Amino acid sequence: MKVLHVETGRHLYGGAQQVVYLLRGLQSRGIANILACPRGSDIARAARDLAEVREMWVGGDLDLTLVARLGRLIDRVRPDLIHLHSRNGADLMGGLAGRWRGCPVVLSRRVDNPEPRWLVTRKYRLYDRVVAISDAIGQVLLAEGLPPAKLRVVRSAVELSPDLPQGTRAEIAARLGLDEQASWLGVVAQLIPRKGHRYLIEALPGLLAAHPRLQVVFFGQGASERQLREQVEAARLTAPVRFVGFRDDLAECLPWLDLLVHPATMEGLGVALLQTAAAGVPIVASQVGGIPEVVRDGHNGFLVRPADPAALGAACRRLLDDPALRRQMGLAGRELIRRHFSTDRMVAGNLAVYEELAPRSDENPTVSAG
Fold first, then answer.
1. Same domain for 177 and 70
2. Are residues 213 and 320 in the same domain?
3. Rounded to the nearest 5°, which phi and psi values hold at 89?
4. What is this structure's pTM?
5. Least CB-packed of 42, 186, 268, 341 within 10 Å?
6. Residue 243 domain boundaries
7. pLDDT tens readout for residues 40-83
C-alpha cells in the first residue's frame, strides 16, 4: 500500500510529531509513505528516513493553488489513498485534489473548536473517513452533522521511554536558567490565547506566597508571547517566570518538572499532556475537550474549571504541598500511557482505517486497533 501524507505545519509541534510516529510505524509494517510538506520544515528533516519527502511551497488557508500542486503530485506518485494531517488550508485543498483525482481521502481532526454546520455538511463530503484523535473531538463532529459512518476515533500517542530521567537536575537547571533547589512548574504549549497561560499568571501570586522558591517555565512560542511577558512584568513576576521557547531537548527537561499545568480553554487532546504523563509528571489541567481522556482527575492529576485562576492555584498547591502524591500520580500517568496511548495502538488504528478504503493484497496480518 502507498499512502500520500500531507502535513503543512512548519514546526515539529504535537500534530507533526504524531505524523512522524505514524510514518515510522507504517514503514515498519511495509507501507510506502510519501510526505508532502512545506519547504524547509522541521518535519521534512525528521521524516527523511521514513518517507519519500516531497517539499513544496504552501500558503495559507486560502491558497487555492495548493489544489493544483497536490493534484500534480497525486498524478506522479499514484497513491492508494491520501491522509490529510493538518489544516492551514491543506484539509480543504487536499480534499478537493483527492476527490478530483478519484483517490480515497482520510482526514485527521486534531482540534475541538466548532465549525459551522453548513461548512461541515459541505466540506466533509470530500473525505471518505475522518479520524478524530479523541472521543471529545468525535462528539463535536457528530454534533455538527458528520455522518457517523465516516467517523473513526484513533487517539494520539507518545513513545514511552524506559529510562527516566536523563541527565541530572543540575544539568537541566543550567540549561533553563533555574534554581536547582526550587520547585519547577512547567507549561508546554504554544503561546496563544486558547492555551490559557494568562490564568496561571493570575494564580501565581497566591502560589508564590505558599511556595516562595517556585519557578515557572513556559515552553513554546507563539503570537501571545509579548502580551504574556507584559502581563508577567506588570505583576512583578519576572524573577520566578522563564520563557524558554521551543526546545529540542523537551523530552530531557520534562521528567525533572515537579508539576505540569495546562490551563487551556479548548483542547482536542493535548500531545504535551501525553508527553508529560509518559515522563512521570503529575498534571493540573482544565476540564475541557479531550483533556479528561489523558488527565484522569485524582489519578494522574487534577482537573479544574477553565478560566478559573483560583481553582487552578488550589490544585497546584495541593500537589506542590505533597511530594508523595506527586510521585504516585506520576507513576499512574506512565501506566495510563502504556495501556491506552502507545504508538503501536495509534499506528494500528490508522492502518485499520486505510484498509477499509484500500485493502492490502499481501499476506501480512494487520494488528487490531483494540
1. no
2. yes
3. 90, -20
4. 0.85
5. 42
6. 169-340
7. 999 999 999 999 999 999 887 778 899 999 999 999 999 999 99
